[in-house]
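lol ok so funny story. i was supposed to be doing the assay writeup but got distracted and ended up predicting the structure for this chain instead. priorities right. anyway since i did it might as well share w the group, maybe its usefull for someone
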Amino acid sequence: MSENSGSVNDLIDQLGRLPGIGRKSAERLAYHLLRVSQGEALALADAIRNVRQNVHYCAACYNFAEAQLCSICLDPSRDQTLLCVVEQPRDLMALDQAGVYRGLYHVLLGRIAPLEGMGPDQLTIDALVERVRCGNFREIIMATNPNVEGDGSALYITNQLAEFPIQISRLARGITA
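and the output, tada:
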């Protein structure tokens, strides 16, 4: 068995740090990048560099954005009285691509998970409370994941928002009777 060069090993190690990519997948990706043209490989490197330089969190909802506000927060056709709370930007994208919800979103950037050292202070809950305080929302839809941490996060947020005269609901789940 031949050894990889230091550069190839470094690439394999970095690719292997990506979620869902094990050592074998990292090796396949590295060898693929060695086979493509230099232009293709550099285009990937540029895309990674550009996303890190240009994409940040929306100042209002914490979705990904290339400007101060994301395209959803800037969309005047959205129902400004509905706010859907999700854990991650990928959850927002999944819900929004379904096309059935036309309100605004708030991304928590995680969930309360004490065993992982993630408490309410590491999330965007304070920003959510302030947003509700300053906004004209009539309903908050809790769309956290249907697991212990997601349910706990939804309960904690519901308690934090108890002082506001708004309806708080939870996404339906399970099979209807």
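The radius of gyration is 21 Å. The first strand starts at residue 56 and ends at 57.
back to the writeup now i swear
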